[in-house]
Amino acid sequence: MSGVVSAEIPIDFDIEAIKAQSVAARSYTIYKIIHGSKHENADVCDDATCCQAWLSRDDRISKWDENRSRKME
Ligand SMILES: [Zn+2]
């Protein structure tokens, strides 16, 4: 779930906004599980235009580093 939330909301947003996004992301996944997925072998995919955005651990850390670098400029 951290891969989804980190792709959907910037890390420097307020912690309460990140918590709310986490609940929304989880709720969306549960909705797809209950109501059926259009994917044969998964409940959701990692395409933001189809299901949910997703970042790998390395991409997430890279994004955080970019964000940190921008703030220091
Ligand atoms: Zn999909």
Commentary on this structure:
By secondary structure, the chain is mainly α. It has one domain (2-72). It is built from three helices and no strands. Helix 1 crosses helix 2 (15-35). The structure holds zinc ion (ZN).
In brief, what are we looking at here?
The protein is mostly helical.
Measured as a percent range, the helix fraction is 55-70%
Q: Could you give the count of β-strands? A: 0
**What does the average pLDDT come to?**
90
Task: Count helical runs.
Answer: 3
Order of helices and strands: HHH
Number of domains: 1
Low-confidence stretches: none
From the alpha carbons, calculate the radius of gyration and give it in angstroms.
14 Å
**Ends apart, CA distance between termini:** 31 Å
Reported for the largest beta sheet, the result is: none
Q: Structural class, judged by helices and strands? A: mainly alpha
- Strand residues, percent: under 5%
Small molecules bound in the structure, each named once: zinc ion
How would the global form be characterised? elongated
Secondary-structure map:
Blueprint lengths: L1 H7 L6 H21 L21 H16 L1
Helix pairs in contact: 1-2
The site of zinc ion (ZN) has 6 residues, from loops.
Key features?
3 helices; mainly alpha; 73 residues; single chain; 0% strand; elongated; binds zinc ion
